[in-house]
Amino acid sequence: MRKKSILPFNERCANITELFKAAEDGNINKVETILDNKPDWANARNNSGEALIHCATRNRQYDILHLLSRYKLDVDIKDSKGDTALLVATEEDDREAVHILLKLGADPNIPNKNIESALHIATTENRINIIRELLKCNRTDPSITERTGGTPLHVAAFKDNEEAAKLLLEAGAGMCKACSMGFTPMHVATMRNSKNVLQRLIQQAEASSMNSKGQACPLRMHKLPLHEAVLSGDETIVKMCLTSGASIDTKKANGETAVHIAASRGSVNILEILFQAQPDKKLKSLQSKDSSMMTPLHTAALFDKPDVIEYLIQQGADVNETNQDGMTPLLLAASKKAWKAMEMLMNKKADLFCTDDNKRNILHLIVTNGGRPEKMCFLCCKVKVKSLLNDQDSEGCTPLHYASRTGNFNTIAAFIDMGAFLNVKDREKQSPLHFAARYGRFHSCKRLLNVVNGMNILNELDETGQTPLHLASYGGHTRVVDFLLTMGASLQKDFAGNSPAHLAASSGYMATLSVLLDWNGNLTNDENSDGNTPLHLAALNGHASCVNLLLTRNAAFKKNSRSEHFMDMIILNEHKDAAVTVVTHERWREALKYCSSQFCWPAVGMIQHLPEVFQIVLDRCRQPSSMDRKHKDFHWIYSFDFLQLPMEAVRKLREQKKVYTPLLTLNIMVKYNRVDLLSHSVCQGYLQMKWKAYGMWIHTINLIFYLIFLASLSTFIATYDPRYHTDKGLNGTGLPKRWQRHEKEQLEPYQKVFVYIIIVFSCLNIIKEFGQMIQQKFKYFTDLTNAIEWTLYITSMLFIVPFVNGKSSHWQWEYAAVSSFFAWLNLLLFLQRFDFFGIYVVMFMGILKTLVQVLIVFSILIVAFAFAFYILMCGEESPTNQTIGLSMLSVFVMMLGNIYYIENWVKPFVDADPYTMHFSSLSFMILLAFILLIAILLMNLLIGLAVGDIESVQRNARLRRLAMQVDIFTELERKIPQRFLEFVDKTEVKNYPNIRCRRMSKFVNSLVHFEEESHSFDQKLDDPDVDHKVYMFDEFARQRKKIDKLQVALEKQFELVRLVVQKMEIKSEDDGVEDDDSDDDQHSDNWGSMNWRKSSAWQKTSIINFWKREASAKKRSTEEFSMRSSSPT
């Protein structure tokens, strides 16, 4: 690249403007003067991005162009549009400028932004002079390609520029060069009907002695010009290709010949041209097959071209040749609804009895694709048709089966009139009536049964023992089921023991099931071979509507052969809707009171798999009384039927020596972390009932005895001076030494009582701990409370037993300190069992655990500072760092802010003694690090963990407290006799929220009772859950309004479409075709024995029928609405 001028911008801009003005005006002297002073400006640009050479070229200033050649000119410089001066000259059709620029050395092959060279542009605009000038230059590539790979010869063929094509061919442009789409110039000329260019290309090929080779240029898709000529439909182009030697039997990549293409287009004239041009290849091309093994006659039949079919048969085409699917042209026409072609083939004596690879004859295919065989002209010859009526395909289906499947009842009537057999069965031993019933063809069923022998197939069985009634029931075709029952269909069972009610229930068709039960109510409790009733199958598949219907019809709650209750199936498969239906039904208590083989108790299964549903059960277990909510005697009734197993079941389990866990439902809630269920008012009331029945008395007695022990221990320690004890070796002589004068201190009588109380209580609790250890096994060692109790009772025994002999030793009082500490700590843990204190104790223990975990991690820092302080300050007067142990303890104290900065740091530093604060600088650095890392960072971290995580701690504390309460009652019930539990347990309690308790009673209740949910109406309104529910109901109401608006809009659109259909007089192709008749949207085709294809005719018919049904339904709804509006309600 040339260097640009580096003059200042303003000066440069002014002078360049004058330079370009002079170049535009042709002022060669001024241009020369400026360039002599500034020769680098020969490549300068103006404000529009044009170079000087572009400006001279556009204004046809040839002298300026010659002048520029004297300087260091970049002749191929591009302007802002990406064009060189040669491209500008080409666009301006300036032959002289092109000649000069090429002489100056311009590159003719440089493309513009659209990747088009000057030769492409000139050919596109048919500028012959420019093309001649460009081709004179030996640097010009006549086969240069543009963006899509097209050469200038492609452009000439596309534009039919014969003179341009001639010049390009003379310059050596490649005739066989293909573009990116695989087309040569000859293909382009053929497709664009460029006769002149095509003739020139053919002449060039002949002149080069490569006419056949030119026609067979290797292309990606092997699309020869003859194929494209036939596809274009231009007879002249076809003749030209044939004249040039193109063969009519040459195949493309997909095996098509030119005859195939002509047949698909229905071009009889082109076929005549092809066969007249090459009669020796006519028979071969007629027999030629493409990749689908189709002959030209197949292609004509496929595209419904009767004229072509007639001509090809006249020319010798085989009318019964088959394709890869074994279809003749006649069968192919029938399968593609080419009715005209099919009629022509039958008139030409095509074989009516041939079948495809699936053994389907012409009637099978006509019925499948929506044809009307009864209206076909060939049916006049009924002798031939009768022999086709009962032919079976590979699946064993006759055309009558097909007609029954599609619901073409007029065709069914025609087949029956012509002698079709009704009792022919397919491979699955199903008759046409089975098919009609299976797919809900109501009118087809009527036509099949309203004949002389129609009733004979009403109760025929298929290979599974099912009648048409079974199939209609399984498909949910209510009208068909009702009709078959009216005609006398038998309500028998199939080979699996399933009645029609079983099948309707398993598919979830409530209306169909209701019709069946109306006909025979005994079907409600029928059992199949597996012992399943319709209720079992509806529950297994989660059909809530059918479950509700069967419950309303008083279905019995039986167990199947696997001892499964219908509710077990709902729970195991987690069918939430069905479960909600059961628990909200009026028979819900009866449905849930059974012993489950899967879960022992249905409530257990719902807690595990459907906790939201069990929440509804608990809500229903809390019912208000019939009184006004503000009445004094208004109360809530809490029922515990589904929280505890019946006592009969418990006794039975214990008699069978099976493992039984008391409070089974609550323990499952704890196991699966169902905090919402545990916090429910019914569960709280249940625990409160247990507490009042026996828990309060047992724990109160236990607490009283423990308080007696604690009081005895504390009083004894408080009344006995700990300094009165023997301390061996106090003076290092090994002789006994007393703090006081007396050798032996006599205990007071009340102190002796305390001693024996402590001993007895400790011994009994040690025995109790052994019993718990044996019972709980490994679980016992995972509880921290057990370790605390062992420490408490052992240290108490070691402390108090020597006092029986009046001895008081030094080590006894050490044990006394430990015993006293753990005694009061155990009292704190004991308070966990009481609701008022328990939450705080559990929170305290949780935060303590977090604190210990953090300190374990950061104890490394504590040890690090302890060693540093010991090394640096062990020689100071202060004894805090005399040993490693004292230094560690000192670090712990300093963590709380007790650094003693003046006494331990400042005074030793400022005194004149060189031996104090010997490592002063380093000591203060370590102190600063301690303040930053421990006193600030670590302490704030601990505070943040304690305060920031309080919500999580409260949530976990609530679960832990509730779990502890459940565990306490579980352990108590393991030890309490069953008869006592039967005596004290209650199945329900009443709560009176409007009766105020005395203050003292209220205070006591708050200390010992479990928390109760407020049930007053006013408080219930303030409940955030209620607010959330109200919000949800409001949101549902808003969505409902939106849905109603959308429904109104759809109805308006439907009305408009209906009016359009009436105005355009659109009619269905076959008014005798019916839709399926399932009772709801759940219907789906569960039968896959055959692949059926819907044609557009059937789709049109379905749309018309849908519009008719919708119009009638809308009319009925309008009448009903007007009646309701006029009624008083």
TrEMBL record:
<dbReference type="InterPro" id="IPR036770">
    <property type="entry name" value="Ankyrin_rpt-contain_sf"/>
</dbReference>
<feature type="repeat" description="ANK">
    <location>
        <begin position="292"/>
        <end position="324"/>
    </location>
</feature>
<feature type="region of interest" description="Disordered">
    <location>
        <begin position="1069"/>
        <end position="1090"/>
    </location>
</feature>
<dbReference type="InterPro" id="IPR052076">
    <property type="entry name" value="TRP_cation_channel"/>
</dbReference>
<keyword id="KW-0813">Transport</keyword>
<keyword id="KW-0812">Transmembrane</keyword>
<feature type="repeat" description="ANK">
    <location>
        <begin position="221"/>
        <end position="253"/>
    </location>
</feature>
<dbReference type="Pfam" id="PF00520">
    <property type="entry name" value="Ion_trans"/>
</dbReference>
<feature type="transmembrane region" description="Helical">
    <location>
        <begin position="813"/>
        <end position="831"/>
    </location>
</feature>
<feature type="repeat" description="ANK">
    <location>
        <begin position="148"/>
        <end position="173"/>
    </location>
</feature>
<feature type="repeat" description="ANK">
    <location>
        <begin position="496"/>
        <end position="528"/>
    </location>
</feature>
<dbReference type="Pfam" id="PF12796">
    <property type="entry name" value="Ank_2"/>
</dbReference>
<feature type="domain" description="Ion transport">
    <location>
        <begin position="703"/>
        <end position="957"/>
    </location>
</feature>
<dbReference type="InterPro" id="IPR002110">
    <property type="entry name" value="Ankyrin_rpt"/>
</dbReference>
<keyword id="KW-0472">Membrane</keyword>
<keyword id="KW-0406">Ion transport</keyword>
<dbReference type="GO" id="GO:1902495">
    <property type="term" value="C:transmembrane transporter complex"/>
</dbReference>
<dbReference type="InterPro" id="IPR005821">
    <property type="entry name" value="Ion_trans_dom"/>
</dbReference>
<feature type="transmembrane region" description="Helical">
    <location>
        <begin position="696"/>
        <end position="720"/>
    </location>
</feature>
<feature type="repeat" description="ANK">
    <location>
        <begin position="464"/>
        <end position="491"/>
    </location>
</feature>
<feature type="transmembrane region" description="Helical">
    <location>
        <begin position="922"/>
        <end position="948"/>
    </location>
</feature>
<feature type="transmembrane region" description="Helical">
    <location>
        <begin position="750"/>
        <end position="767"/>
    </location>
</feature>
<feature type="repeat" description="ANK">
    <location>
        <begin position="254"/>
        <end position="286"/>
    </location>
</feature>
<feature type="repeat" description="ANK">
    <location>
        <begin position="395"/>
        <end position="427"/>
    </location>
</feature>
<keyword id="KW-0716">Sensory transduction</keyword>
<keyword id="KW-0677">Repeat</keyword>
<feature type="repeat" description="ANK">
    <location>
        <begin position="181"/>
        <end position="213"/>
    </location>
</feature>
<feature type="transmembrane region" description="Helical">
    <location>
        <begin position="884"/>
        <end position="902"/>
    </location>
</feature>
<keyword id="KW-1133">Transmembrane helix</keyword>
<protein>
    <submittedName>
        <fullName>DgyrCDS1664</fullName>
    </submittedName>
</protein>
<feature type="repeat" description="ANK">
    <location>
        <begin position="530"/>
        <end position="562"/>
    </location>
</feature>
<feature type="transmembrane region" description="Helical">
    <location>
        <begin position="787"/>
        <end position="806"/>
    </location>
</feature>
<keyword id="KW-0325">Glycoprotein</keyword>
<dbReference type="GO" id="GO:0005216">
    <property type="term" value="F:monoatomic ion channel activity"/>
</dbReference>
<feature type="repeat" description="ANK">
    <location>
        <begin position="81"/>
        <end position="113"/>
    </location>
</feature>
<feature type="repeat" description="ANK">
    <location>
        <begin position="325"/>
        <end position="357"/>
    </location>
</feature>
<feature type="transmembrane region" description="Helical">
    <location>
        <begin position="851"/>
        <end position="872"/>
    </location>
</feature>
<keyword id="KW-0407">Ion channel</keyword>
<feature type="compositionally biased region" description="Acidic residues">
    <location>
        <begin position="1071"/>
        <end position="1082"/>
    </location>
</feature>
<keyword id="KW-0040">ANK repeat</keyword>
